[in-house]
Amino acid sequence: MKRTTIIIITYIIVIFNSYLSANEANKTLKVGLLAPLTGEYKELGNSLLYSLQLALDEINDKRVFIIPRDSGFNNKEKLKNAIQDIKSEGAKVIIGPITNQEFSDLKSYPEMIFISPSNIAPIFKNNVISMGVSLESQLLALAKFIKKQNKKKTVIMYPENQYADLVEKKLSVLNLENFKKFKYSSNPEVLTGEIEKLTNYSQRKKNLDLRKKMFEDKEDEQSVKQLEKLDQLYTLGEVNFDSVIIIDFGNNLKSVLTSLVYTDVNQNNVLFTTVNQWFDESIFYENTIKNLYYPSINYKEFKKYNAKYFKKFKSYPSEITILTYDALGLIYYAWKKNGDISSTSDFLFKEKIKGKIGTFSFKDKKITQDLEIYKTSKNKFIKF
To answer: Cα 323 from chain centroid?
Structure first.
């Protein structure tokens, strides 16, 4: 399998380079790719390379070719050499880098344009355009959805980690109404106690005990029935919110959901939402939650992309690669529309652009995705 992978990658690079020699006399669109093609993250890098081959197949324009170079992962020297090499080949637009930590190194190349799949800052900053599924787009989609569900009191929950300041900054800029913030510990042992306070769990437990005592010494039929009903409850009284947005992933998200259910948050009254989970099927096995809603890219297109990728390369892609697939389509669209690409301003389209992940809007040097809402129910992702 390893030998097959090497052969495929070599074949793709040969194809990319063949476009250069075949079109020397014609006007061409040269696009660089910065990817970790060696080292710990080489599988991701190879997946990015494959995704661009799929995009080239669909574009089907021999004037377009890719210049892939190994930029490592958070490796300043490799990144510098890769950019200079791509620049020397005559490319002005580069897909990458994949992380925003490397953005500061791109200021040294003001004449170049970088289209990154990072979702940290969906703005045109200097010579960088981030086209990842941004937190802003997700929160705006959720706020709109929650409003349609007539929910008035929403708690936005997020962990105390290296991204907490970023989340708080995004929330302050969006200035959402009827929302309050709740920051919790990433330690599951501490988390449960914090959510008990959020849900006023102790008082609601006391409310139930006090109510049951009112009927315990009574033997009339009505009192007996009331006591039987109370015995079916764990707490008495509602929580002070009607919806939650949980900005978390994986096992941490599952711990939060479990704690909310443990503290007897009524799922019939409280709407449970989270951020983009890339259709992670492990959520299906978190059976404490009946329905969990989140904004995401187009599921049908995501499945079609994965199937097409698997058919050609006999493996499944990393989720982020669909962003680079769309990035090449976006670059090609700008090139065809403007006749050339000279700056990030060439990507400020008045109209919306439809890609594999969904529809993009470009306004005030900012990219916003029109995301759809999905829910997990009975081991399925259902468009809401």
So the answer is: 10
